[in-house]
Amino acid sequence: MFICKNCKNIDKFELMFDENYQGNKEYKYYYDKKGDMIIDVNGYNFKPDLSFMNNHAVCKYCGQIYIWDYKL
Q1: Domain total for the chain?
Q2: Which of 64, 60, 32, 26 is nearest to 47 (CA)?
Q3: Which residue has the higher pLDDT, 23 or 44?
Q4: Is residue 14 a contact partner of residue 26, using CB atoms and an 8 Å limit?
Q5: What is the pLDDT of residue 22?
Q6: What is the pTM of this model?
Q7: Does the pLDDT value for residue 59 go beyond 90?
């Protein structure tokens, strides 16, 4: 899980897509049996790390970027 260091919301984000991205700009996320977040973008599933979140995720509540940390 990831926490916004600004407003303290957990896993509430939107993804930023490159303007040249050709696929549908839709995604979903869920948690696997271990409790790890899995993001699905057009059928491609991956486990995000902190670098990914800080480069591609915007807090859905406060709008901050580059502000994620691991929720321990």
Answers
A1: 1
A2: 32
A3: 44
A4: no
A5: 87
A6: 0.84
A7: yes
